[in-house]
């Protein structure tokens, strides 16, 4: 149950908090990246629910509940593997999607610097601590945050790639850790189920 709650909190933080939240809007967001997070959050919610039934099965020594607990953990394990596949195999697509979002906002700003996109592009620059698409020459006239570090200021596209890479590594680490907990849960549930059956046969 605690592992499930941790997975939910981690997935929601990556989706709605931190730098990655700045890539999501009503119309555009790197959905390929977020798809893996949705699966991760769903697996966490299922783990929390299933954990309760596992505790009930162990307390009541019910082979039926323990068997259902094992089956649910198997489904969760498959979901975690799916999230890992989306996170790592889809990394290139997710980076391209996020970079395209920034490039669209950048182009809109260049067409109308006084429009609403002025605040949006500044928000991106502040979150990523960068300014511009390619080089320092393109920073002229852009709403750049103050006191940004060099050479990070030279390319927001590079910073987007770095941020997604870092977040995907976090997803991978958490996924592997939770998968390990899930495997141990399946092993212990089967061991306990066998012990209960043998004990009843002896009685």
From TrEMBL:
<dbReference type="InterPro" id="IPR000301">
    <property type="entry name" value="Tetraspanin_animals"/>
</dbReference>
<keyword id="KW-0812">Transmembrane</keyword>
<keyword id="KW-0472">Membrane</keyword>
<dbReference type="InterPro" id="IPR018499">
    <property type="entry name" value="Tetraspanin/Peripherin"/>
</dbReference>
<dbReference type="InterPro" id="IPR008952">
    <property type="entry name" value="Tetraspanin_EC2_sf"/>
</dbReference>
<feature type="transmembrane region" description="Helical">
    <location>
        <begin position="66"/>
        <end position="89"/>
    </location>
</feature>
<feature type="signal peptide">
    <location>
        <begin position="1"/>
        <end position="21"/>
    </location>
</feature>
<dbReference type="Pfam" id="PF00335">
    <property type="entry name" value="Tetraspanin"/>
</dbReference>
<feature type="transmembrane region" description="Helical">
    <location>
        <begin position="37"/>
        <end position="59"/>
    </location>
</feature>
<dbReference type="GO" id="GO:0005886">
    <property type="term" value="C:plasma membrane"/>
</dbReference>
<keyword id="KW-0732">Signal</keyword>
<keyword id="KW-1133">Transmembrane helix</keyword>
<protein>
    <recommendedName>
        <fullName>Tetraspanin</fullName>
    </recommendedName>
</protein>
<feature type="transmembrane region" description="Helical">
    <location>
        <begin position="170"/>
        <end position="196"/>
    </location>
</feature>
<comment type="similarity">
    <text>Belongs to the tetraspanin (TM4SF) family.</text>
</comment>
